[in-house]
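User: My advisor, Dr. K., asked me to get a structural model of this assembly before our group meeting. I'm new to this, so sorry if the format is off. These are the inputs:
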Amino acid sequence: MRRNTVAMITAVTAMLTVAPAWAENLIRIGSPYQTTTLDPIRSSAAGNIETFGQLYSRLLRRDADGKMQPGLAEEWTISDDGLELVFTLRDAKFSNGTPIIADDVAFSLTRAIKDEKSAYSATLAAIDSVTAVDSHTVRVTLKHKFAPILENLEVFNAGIVSKADVQARGEQAFVDKPVTSGPYEVREWRPNDRLILEPNPHYWREGYPKNDGAEFIEISNANTRVSMMMSGELEAMREVPWSQLAEMQSRDNVTVALEPSTMIYMTLLNERRPPFDNVKVRQAAAYALNVPAIAKAMTEGHAQPANTTLPSALNYHDKDFPGLPYDPALAQTLLKEGGYDGKELTVLIAPTTDSDKLATLLQAQWSAIGLKTKIEKVDRSVWWERVPAGDYDLAPSWWYNETSDPDLAVRWALCGSCGTYSFQTYYENAEVDQLTEQAVRELDPAKRAALYAQIQRISTDEVAQIPLYYPPYANAYARDLRGLTLSPSLQWSLEEAVLSR
Amino acid sequence: MTFLAFLARRLAGTIPVLIGISLAAFLLVHLAPGDPARLLMGDRASEEAVAALRDQMGLNNDLATQYLNYMGHLLRADLGQSLRFQRPVLTLIGQFLPATLFLIGYVMVISVPLTVILAVTAARNRDRWPDQFIRLGAIIGMTFPVFWLALMMSRYFGVELGWLPVSGFGEGFTGHLRHLFLPAISISAWLVPLLLRSLRATLIHEMEADYVVAGRSKGLPEGLNFRRHVLMNSLIPTLNLLGVMLAYLIGGAVVVEVVYAVPGIGTLMINAVLGRDFQVIQGVTVVYALLTVLITLCVDLLSALIDPRIKP
Amino acid sequence: MTTSDVTTQATKARVSTALAAFLSRNGSFEVLAGLLILTALLVLAFAAAHVVPADPSAIDFEALMAPPSVAHPFGTDHLGRDVFSRTVFALRIDLWMGVAGVAAPLVIGTALGLVAGYFGGWADAILSRIVDVTVAFPFFVLVIAIVGIMGPGLTNYFIALALVGWVSYARLVRAQTAVLRDKDYVQAARVLGYSTPVILFRHVMPATLPVVLVYATTDIVMIVLAGASLGFLGLGVQPPTPEWGAMIAEGQPYVVNAWWICLFPGLAAIVMGFGFVLLSDGLSRMIRQ
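Assistant: The format is fine. Below is the predicted structure of the whole assembly, which you can bring to the meeting.
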């Protein structure tokens, strides 16, 4: 009897602790971000962006150094006035074996620009029309000169989809196994859990992808992600918590990479109503903050303090600009001069990673100069209603840019006449607006740099937003995984990755 | 009363409950602030695109119409369409339900025998050291935050010792057993104390009952007396208790599923809450409620079968 | 010996007999221990400002995540705030959260239970249906759904508790009232012509209170723990309010390299829970005799 019990316990223990052999080598990537759609034009949310890149090729491809390389287009010409681009397509096939022709390209791009469900058509807004000249030639005409056109044609929403399939299946084309043009196709999508990709057998790049496929697993809890990574249940993970970075780095089976991002943490100020309609009170709020100390406390020293209103990974970011220094005495003077009446101001935050911590830090420093605030945490969708409605005073948050060209970032965050009201702060400076249009039409890089530097100086001095810090992406990789990186615009180099097991 | 009559009455009684559940679930979603369409399309989507989507989702109809629509769909076992995923909610739930059911069964298999053993030990040694010890342990166990315990166990047994997986559901029956072991233990550690305290009280209450005392005075051996009288008569209260505790178990499982990334409906629900996928929150809540109703029904029927006052 | 001495002695004697009687009852030890813990916590909560070494919201960039030391007996958190001070200040919120969280369900549930149990018939039938519907939703699931949909924060949590928690009280009170209404003294009151509200609130309700209070003491523990779980899921109180659940949730990312941020508020929650459970255990044993 006793011996049987012991034998049974041993058997059960063995069954529980011995892992079964893994048949296939899928690269498992753990991320807090969800896949919510497989249609490249329907979302600009992180998570979706990451997988769009794996499923849909664009006309151009960005290499590991960020340079533009031929993609589905083998070559292209640009007219002298810069208004007409002609792309010549290579012989490529969709995942279902049908050829990718100019008609598909025209259909996909026009859809991204014109479809009412297109979540983010701003990248391609300068395009007047896209037409198929013949089966292998596409003509793109622009409304005006547009310096970042090639870069923007590489953005995720310019991914090429199959016209025939989308027209035949409609919405369903992006729910069940979409026809893809990129390195992978969908084996299985389990919403809210994981997306499993397998190599697209017809992918145009010879010899790629170099692996059996990947699994994007959604894990909202950071501690769970870390546990999984450290116990070998993941090959890669997004968003290593800063506090556990050193601990993870010290493991034999894991490396942590800090990869440049186009993210910026900042604070929005409601410039439609007092007190922040007054530039002096805005400056007071900025001078009150010890930005380097905040950057250090928030990320354990892994982020660079922000010196301008634009993310540091963007082209033409002005590294030499000193920014507004920490000067509480000056802040107090400015606060008085600005006529702040001692009213308690609302700091509006959404429950995202670290938002509590950041708001608490800011509140303490503002209260030190006499700026009274109360923190209000609301649901993310409520945040996105109250900020555009102007129902807040301060809103610490973050944003990032899909391209390394600064045009979109400026239009999003600093331009008052571009439809976004300077990220809903209603910051408006006619000179900045004019410089925005001038810079995007300027094709000479040196001159563009000067124009963007000017935009950054003006908007930082006038405190369009309070820039705080530039965090890198902190990703962890298994040591037996080679060649996987994440680009600043959230694209994985998945097709290059090799799992050595 | 015959068993069949009991069954019929019990089944009829669930109909108003089901209607109530549908109404409650429907109203729940209409408390919501914020615009689901905005969330669906991402932060930088244009106003026009968001407005178009609102229209398409029928968010502009009046409340009564929306409820009638909802009821009609429910009757056809249609829990609606996930706003975020453009898939039927039922499909999503079907995909996540097995892990939760397995976990609940697993917890029961671990915690029911454990509870009975501990409660019997405590009751038979009433006020002596094993009883004091077990009661103290139960009080401490009850006051532990579940997620904290779960987190600690995952780090220690999963990461440091590497004995068990810390996430997922696994493949095949043994895979499920392996992957859900830590989650099941985490829930049991918190559930057993709750069950234990009630069962111990019931047992002690029964031990003082007249017929047991009579049995004892007639010289019936203590062990036999306990098994024949005390345990048998404690069965129905225990079964009822189990029904109540299942509701707690299901709630506790939500948190533990999140900590261990178990693809169960608890994880689905939290993701839906964070992503404001109203139809899914609603659907999962309804499924949880139906699950509870079903379990309670089973417990009642089982009790009725055992209860000598109801003839089979 | 003066008369006052005699009275004092008599009082003393009476007190000591009462005490002896109390102590001889089963469960008295638990009640005393529970009360002792809770009184100590209550005193600590009121004296918080005088007891703690630092302002609970004071941020110190120089001492982020400092381990426990003489200056910071419980260490500092990720913002350099003193964990000891925060844990003590959180007592106020958590005691209040427990008591306030129980208050609304207790009042609503007791009132409904009284009415249903006393009048029976339609009132009872309707209440039973509502109870059946509410218990069909697992407590924590419904709380998550309500808080998740209405948005995070303490107020919404209380609303959720009031909507869900009253059921247990209503059931307890209803069952007892149904028995009590046929008792002699209640029937006597009826014969004497007392109005129904007077009978309900002066004669029936007091008799149901002990059981309700016993349940309430365990309920408080559940409410604080469920609140902590909500904090963990990101649906708890607004920052920078010191609250144990929120503190544990905030400290959760640092649990490996700065365990003290989570541990001490967790222990505090356990101590408070322990106090309430002991009290409830003891009371229920005393009632049963």
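One thing worth pointing out at the meeting: Chain B is about 80% helix and 0% strand.

User: Perfect, thanks a lot.
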